[in-house]
Amino acid sequence: MKRIYVIDTKLLMYMEHHRGNDTHNIFSDLALYLAPIGKGKMYYAYDAPEGSKRRKDMFPDYKANRSDREKKMSKVELRQFKAFKQEYIGYKSILAKFGNLLYLQGWEADDFANFICQRFAGKKDVEVIMVSSDRDWSMNMTAPNIKLFHWGRKLLLYTQEQVKDVFGLYTNEALEAQVFAGISKENVVGIKNFGPSRFLETVDVNTMSKVQKLHAVQQVLDLRATPAQIKNGTGKWGTKLPEKFASLEEMYDFNYELLRPVTMNDLTHQEVQEFTRQFSLAAPTSSLHGVVGAFAGLNQVYMPSFDVINFFNLALPTSD
């Protein structure tokens, strides 16, 4: 079986940075923790500086609140954060040399994960393992051969059936929950305090149509309580529709289109060609020594000591 690893590069590197560690530790850590799963082609998904063109065109303020974080940083924190961003950008050219980079203008790492999982979902001869701790990535686990290695405290591999254990929602519930609740870290507004537990008390994505979901959630807004709260008499909570939207349906349609996974219909012909080129890129065996030789000069500065060829595994094996 062929195995593909899709790495949420910026998130993993930032977690190392936030812990006070050197960002290059992430490469050796990945080699260590993914080794028991088995060999596979490693793809490092990168965010374009401008973010998602599709989402920005639809909503110019998408993730606009990210810049506010830097304003709240101390001078030391800001200097360290800028150094982190420079390191993140610097690794992009290194990974590109090895054929392990996924990067397109107007794309986010999430988009690559979406697209790859869609293309290989249900394929019996391919296993896709996403490496992230972002709940958004769980939306891609639409088939048994799509798995998530959660880069958190437990560092565990989760299947489609197990994903609720870590995120509180199954794959088919994750998108709908975010559509109603919004995502504050991405500046996407929704119903305040309508988190996963309240969403699950109100909506059944397996049995309800769109009209039924909207009706159920509208009742929550009108009564200021979920069905379970009403039944148990546990009191009401203050919530309302965001002022940005005239109706619940308007909010639903807007957020759904904004947050849904990327599809083939979203891509231009040039994007398809470039993605295919990057995805199929692998340095020929005859040129490995030259590529690794060039990388070795940077090894002392950027990378810990380990077997570079074995780690990057430029050739996708047919079996373990």
What's the arrangement of secondary structure elements?
Blueprint (H helix, E strand, L loop, with lengths): L1 E7 H10 L6 H10 L6 E5 L7 H6 L7 H6 L3 H23 L3 E2 L6 H12 L5 E7 L13 E5 L5 E3 L5 H4 L3 H11 L14 H7 L7 H14 L3 H6 L15 H12 L9 H12 L7 H15 L5 H5 L8
Helix pairs in contact: 8-12
CATH superfamily of the largest domain: 5'-nuclease
- Tally of discrete structural domains: 2
Approximate strand percentage:
5-15%
What is the C-alpha radius of gyration, as a whole number of Å?
A: 21 Å
Low-confidence stretches: 282-320
Mean pLDDT: 80
Which word captures the global form? globular
Order of helices and strands: EHHEHHHEHEEEHHHHHHHHH
Widest β-sheet, arrangement of strands? 3-2-1-4-5-6
- Indicate the CATH class of the largest domain: Alpha Beta
CATH fold title of the largest domain? Rossmann fold
Number of extended strands: 6
Structural class: alpha/beta
* Measured distance between first and last alpha carbons: 7 Å
CATH architectural type of the largest domain: 3-Layer(aba) Sandwich
The major beta sheet can be summarized as: 6 strands, mixed
Oligomeric form: single chain
Helix content: 40-55%
Total number of helices = 15
